[in-house]
Specification:
This protein is mainly alpha-helical. It is built from 6 helices and no strands. The protein has helices spanning 3-11, 17-36, 42-60, 68-85, 90-111, 116-135. Helix 2 (17-36) packs parallel to helix 6 (116-135) and helix 3 runs antiparallel to helix 4 (68-85). The radius of gyration is 16 Å and the shape is flat.
Length: 140
């Protein structure tokens, strides 16, 4: 299907079958990861997953990025947060950034541009991936 037709399908409210099935799978993975994380430090883990997913999605936006100062400040805050979780948590941030950049590249090719739906998909997938990665992170 050409990219223009894909964009039309995204706008059509009658094409919700894949969205509903995606939502069911995403919710199951998200909840499984949340329940697998240790209760102690759950707030930090959720903050790191959400923050790194949104940071990565912003980096994937080639057309409109914030200033380098804001990006640098966000990176420093994420790094400080990662140290409070584990000495290895920075690996999750790097992995999520790479994952989101790849996903943005694939979506940009498929749709010819990134839409709000594409950014939302990138953020949700990246956050779930970060939570799953944090489950397997070695703890001190």
């Amino acid at each position: 299907v050409p990219p223009q037709r894909r964009l039309e399908i995204l706008k059509d409210p009658r094409h919700g079958t894949f969205a509903i099935s995606y939502f069911a799978v995403a919710t199951a993975l998200w909840l499984a990861a949340l329940f697998a994380l240790p209760i102690a430090g759950l707030e930090q883990n959720c903050a790191l997953a959400a923050g790194s997913a949104r940071f990565a999605a912003v980096l994937g936006a080639l057309d409109r990025r914030p200033s380098p100062f804001i990006l640098g400040l966000d990176a420093v805050l994420l790094a400080v947060l990662s140290v409070s979780i584990s000495p290895w948590a920075w690996i999750v941030i790097v992995a999520i950034v790479v994952f989101a950049l790849l996903q943005c590249t694939v979506l940009r090719r498929a749709l010819s541009r990134l839409t709000g739906d594409a950014y939302g998909c990138t953020i949700v997938c990246s956050e779930i991936a970060a939570l799953v990665a944090l489950v397997f992170l070695p703890r001190p």
